[in-house]
């Protein structure tokens, strides 16, 4: 999958209001063209804003991590497709993934299956009653997603190389938990730098706090795009 470096950076608009999100998009200008809207912003008017961004020509990643009964997931996915967004996440459970694929239909919406969250490690899986390590669980979920017809996988870049070997070259790999050198780890447990993520096989890198909390968000975004471009050229 060949994607321009600037389009491989997905800026997470993890802010509490649409006004703040609009200001960030304006600040970043052409440094970033792909934006993620997660749960916090979604419940504060972000769904409508997602449609506005898409209509303005931006790529939009609607990160709702859907997981419900099949009928509900299918219908919600159909509504997301009508917004014109590029990506929609669902949790990587077989029934949920099948429902999302059905809801996507023939639209251009790409469904991403979320594997083990980057804020989890083996002990968190064990506490949830899930047998097996993070690596084993992600591998199983990736194989199921491929068989079901999901368009891409959300995983830590730490598992990207292994997932790429499972799903092949055509499925998109989207990696959150990206932390440039010197950035605080925060609540993430499985973090990787931008260049290392690209070399591991990631197609898209999701970056939030290292950009939106930076003294100069545009400069921070440009630096990450530069790292992506340099790593992709190796």
Automatic annotation (TrEMBL):
Read off the Pfam families from this record.
OMPdecase
Task: Kindly tell me the pathway this chain contributes to.
Answer: Pyrimidine metabolism; UMP biosynthesis via de novo pathway; UMP from orotate: step 2/2
List residues binding substrate. 14, 36, 63-72, 118, 179, 188, 208-209
* Alphabetic keyword roster: Decarboxylase, Lyase, Pyrimidine biosynthesis
Gene Ontology cellular-component annotations: cytosol
* One annotated GO molecular function: orotidine-5'-phosphate decarboxylase activity
Q: Record's CDD domains?
A: OMP_decarboxylase_like (cd04725)
InterPro entries per the record? Answer: Aldolase_TIM, OMPdecase, OMPdecase_AS, OMPdecase_bac, OMPdeCOase_dom, RibuloseP-bd_barrel
Reaction(s) catalyzed by this protein? Answer: orotidine 5'-phosphate + H(+) = UMP + CO2
Q: Cross-referenced PANTHER family, in alphabetical order?
A: OROTIDINE 5'-PHOSPHATE DECARBOXYLASE
| Description of how the protein assembles with itself and partners | Homodimer.
Instruction: Quote the protein name from its UniProt record.
Output: Orotidine 5'-phosphate decarboxylase
Which gene produces this protein? pyrF
């Amino acid at each position: 999958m060949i994607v321009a470096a600037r389009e491989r950076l997905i800026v997470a608009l993890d802010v509490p209001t649409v006004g703040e999100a609009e200001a960030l998009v304006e600040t970043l200008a052409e440094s970033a063209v792909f934006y993620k809207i997660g749960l916090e912003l979604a419940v504060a008017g972000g769904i409508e804003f997602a449609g506005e961004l898409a209509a303005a020509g931006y790529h939009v990643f609607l990160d709702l991590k859907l997981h419900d009964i099949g009928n509900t997931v299918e219908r919600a996915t159909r509504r997301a497709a009508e917004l014109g967004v590029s990506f929609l996440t669902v949790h990587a459970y077989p029934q949920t993934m099948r429902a999302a694929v059905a809801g996507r239909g023939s639209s251009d919406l790409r469904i991403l299956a979320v594997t083990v969250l980057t804020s989890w490690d083996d002990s968190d899986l064990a506490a949830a009653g899930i047998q097996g390590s993070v690596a084993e669980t992600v591998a199983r979920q990736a194989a199921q997603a491929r068989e079901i017809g999901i368009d891409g996988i959300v995983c830590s870049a730490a598992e990207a190389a292994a997932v790429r070997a499972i799903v092949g070259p055509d499925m998109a790999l989207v990696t959150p938990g990206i932390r440039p050198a010197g950035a605080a780890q925060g609540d993430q447990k499985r973090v990787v730098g931008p260049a290392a993520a690209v070399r591991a096989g990631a197609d898209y890198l999701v970056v939030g706090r290292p950009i939106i909390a930076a003294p100069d968000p545009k400069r921070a975004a440009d630096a990450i795009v530069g790292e992506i471009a340099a790593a992709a050229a190796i």
